[in-house]
Amino acid sequence: MRPFEYLRPTESDQAVAAVTADPQTSFLAGGTTQLDLMKDGVLNPDRLVDITRLPLRGIMHTTTSVHVGALTTMEELAADTVLRERLPFVREALLLGASTQLRNMATIGGNLLQRARCRYFRDPTVDACNKRDPGSGCAAINGIQRMHAILGTSEHCIALHASDVAVPFVALDVIVHVQGHDGHRTIPLTRFYLPPGTTPHIENVLNHGELITEVEIPLLPEGTRSHYVKVRDRVSYEFALASAGVALEMHGDTIREARIGLGGVGTIPWRAWGAEEVLRGAVTGGDAFRAASEAALEGARTLPGTAFKVELAKRTLVRTLEIVAGAQS
Predict the structure, then answer these.
(1) Cα separations in angstroms, 160 against 8, 154, 175, 196, 247
(2) Quick one: pLDDT at residue 329?
(3) Is the pTM of this model over 0.85?
């Protein structure tokens, strides 16, 4: 790891100013991803601004939402009683997202900003990576593709977004609060991430120096059912091959409202708008669920190593819908 300067401010304004002033300066929170990338030589900041002493930790409840400080850890949020009772699929995604040790270090803001798990991005000896070196190519397209995306891809990048909790978050229309040099703004999570297109190195809409300060999680109506299913190669500490976060507002066997996020398949946390439309007003059951899964994977672009994910993702979504609707235990 290269030498770097280390700052630890106690005020958000100081932290934002320090990072904004220098393009080679980065924020540091839990560090569970960033330090690994620095050790591997993928990231080489000249200065780190440690934000762990900023007053951005804690959980506050209102009648309509849960407000989570960006430095709140995954474990702290998973332990929240309101979340457990009203939004169980968020808690399930948090618990399935990392080991206990990592959940006690990793922050909610940092989780949303975690970098791609592409082996080619994370190996600086690989020359072709548009995410790491714009214009150099994408080694994954002709390489090992099993852990890559099939939705939101481009000829320039097929890297997967690996966050678990971002899947129910995107289904919930979570709001991200940020502070920058020019003040505060709010960004819906559905507009926060950017598909790779021709600029895979630009992963979200944040400007350099903007700091996530809070995540606002809307509460769904009382009685809404939800669940998160994660399919992976092994149970212990592994990223999703496919996952689904589903929330259904029911009236008897009829679905009044559906919210669906997919993981393990998209270059960004994937909101399945088409599937939600299919389910709205539908009677629960195999035909509706399969039609929703077809709509959710419409437009998937596969390579030989990712072709299996289309059917896997469909079955994962159907299974999640069956659980939430109570069709199966």
Answers:
(1) 32, 12, 22, 10, 23
(2) 37
(3) yes
